[in-house]
């Protein structure tokens, strides 16, 4: 039976919990920020995955407050089921188990510090003690259930070779393979011969309401003459990886696949995307973020007459959206390409004059050349860069890169 003193103590806790409830949004935001600061893999989360972390924090804090306010540290079966589901989900998305468990510890410490800082003068020592013990009990229960569910789910995933390949790509995208030796061991175990500098392809449907399914990914890979994820093949044939993230498909493609062929396949399948070439395999996570953020921010007219953005488009969009990773020298290099070479300086001058004046005739007058000469230079610029200055998007990209080169 609860004593009068105990009843009063729990009443005080309940009053504080009611106040915290109205402030919980800020506490959750602080906890998520702390998790992302402390655990590198969480810094790459975006969209639905980040919202999932916030939702779990909300639920965990509310459940902890309910137990603490009532003087009860019992974790019931519904809690256990929720933790098991979280463990299985984290195994499926490839997040390391140690990082998942550490995220709960970091979030819990943020919550306890918040209560101590804001409400210490309203609480008794026993209140803080029971809150701390409740957190420890919860973390113990969380660890047991998440570890069991995570290990079981990973075993099931790795029993399927195609899923194992997708899990490797998930790890690469999350920068969990920074050691060339560890990566070489993993690819050897999975009978893979991946290129050192693969082509990264990120695609989504042209219809925002349509999510990509596994059969769409399989059709995409087949159309490019490659082996689909779940089909058996010899090591010499498996030179690519593919996976899905929310509404997008991601593929690492070998150098034998021509960019033009990828563009054609994506167009026929009503897909649009971004392709980034030249990134080393161990550093593919940066290319993934660059391509994904480009698709998030690209205007509709950037896809006029084409299905794929390229590395230059992605670099330009990083600059236009003020991404921390924006690099002006990369915009110049990836947009202008060969035009930065001394041998093509006259072509770059012709292109610059055309963009500045708006017509080949006016540009020719500015440079004191024949209009036909200027048109030839524009044709060569299109061939060397893959960009037509008559297109609004390409003109913006070229003009920006030229201006940055001049400023540099």
Fraction in helix: 55-70%
The overall pLDDT, averaged over residues, is: 86
Q: What is the CATH class name of the largest domain?
A: Mainly Alpha
Number of domains: 3
Walk across the major sheet and give the strand order.
2-3-1-4-5
Question: And the CATH topology of the largest domain?
Answer: Globin-like
List unreliable stretches of 5+ residues. Answer: 1-6
List the helices and strands and how they pair.
Blueprint: H1 4-38, H2 47-69, H3 77-92, H4 97-119, H5 125-158, H6 161-173, H7 180-189, E1 199-205, H8 214-223, E2 241-245, E3 248-253, H9 259-268, E4 271-276, H10 284-297, E5 308-309, H11 311-320, H12 328-336, H13 345-357, H14 360-367, H15 371-385, H16 392-407
Overview of the structural elements:
The chain is of the alpha+beta class and about 400 residues long. It has 3 domains: about 5-160, Globins (Globin-like, Orthogonal Bundle), CATH 1.10.490.10; about 195-325, Alpha-Beta Plaits (2-Layer Sandwich), CATH 3.30.70; about 340-405, Orthogonal Bundle (Arc Repressor Mutant, subunit A). About 65% of the residues lie in helices and about 5% in strands. It is built from 16 helices and 5 strands. Strands 2-3-1-4-5 form a 5-stranded mixed sheet, with helices on both faces. α4 runs antiparallel to α5 (about 125-160), α10 packs across α11 and α13 (about 345-355) packs across α14. The chain is elongated. Mean pLDDT is about 85; it is low at about 1-5.
């Amino acid at each position: 039976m609860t004593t009068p003193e105990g009843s009063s103590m729990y009443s005080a806790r309940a009053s504080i919990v009611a106040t915290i409830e109205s402030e919980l949004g800020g506490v959750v935001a602080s906890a998520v920020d702390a998790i992302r600061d402390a655990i590198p893999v969480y810094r790459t989360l975006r969209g639905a995955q980040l919202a999932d972390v916030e939702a779990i924090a909300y639920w965990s804090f509310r459940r902890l407050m309910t137990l603490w306010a009532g003087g009860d540290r019992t974790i019931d079966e519904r809690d256990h089921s929720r933790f098991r589901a979280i463990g299985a989900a984290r195994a499926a998305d490839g997040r390391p188990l140690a990082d998942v468990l550490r995220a709960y510890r970091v979030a819990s410490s943020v919550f306890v510090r918040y209560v101590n800082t804001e409400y210490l003068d309203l609480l008794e020592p026993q209140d803080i003690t029971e809150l701390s013990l409740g957190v420890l009990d919860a973390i113990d229960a969380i660890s047991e259930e998440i570890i069991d569910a995570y290990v079981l789910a990973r075993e099931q995933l790795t029993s399927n070779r195609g899923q194992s390949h997708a899990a490797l790509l998930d790890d690469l995208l999350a920068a969990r393979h920074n050691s060339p030796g560890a990566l070489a061991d993993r690819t050897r175990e999975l009978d893979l011969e991946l290129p050192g500098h693969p082509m990264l392809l990120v695609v989504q449907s042209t219809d925002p309401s349509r999510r990509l399914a596994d059969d769409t990914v399989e059709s995409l890979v087949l159309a490019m003459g490659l082996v689909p994820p779940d089909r058996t093949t010899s090591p010499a044939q498996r030179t690519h990886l593919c996976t899905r993230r929310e509404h997008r498909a991601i593929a690492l493609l070998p150098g034998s696949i021509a960019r033009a062929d990828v563009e054609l396949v994506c167009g026929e399948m009503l897909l649009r995307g971004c392709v980034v070439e030249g990134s080393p395999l161990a550093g593919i996570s940066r290319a993934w973020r660059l391509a994904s953020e480009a698709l998030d921010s690209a205007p509709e007219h950037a896809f006029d007459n084409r299905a794929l953005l390229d590395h230059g488009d992605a670099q330009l969009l990083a600059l236009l959206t003020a991404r921390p990773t924006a690099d002006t020298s990369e915009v110049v290099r990836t947009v202008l390409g060969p035009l930065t070479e001394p041998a093509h300086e006259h072509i770059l001058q012709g292109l610059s004059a055309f963009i500045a004046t708006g017509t080949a005739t006016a540009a020719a007058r500015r440079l004191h050349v024949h209009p036909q000469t200027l048109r030839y230079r524009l044709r060569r610029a299109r061939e060397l860069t893959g960009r037509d200055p008559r297109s609004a998007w390409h003109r913006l990209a070229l003009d920006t890169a030229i201006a940055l080169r001049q400023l540099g």
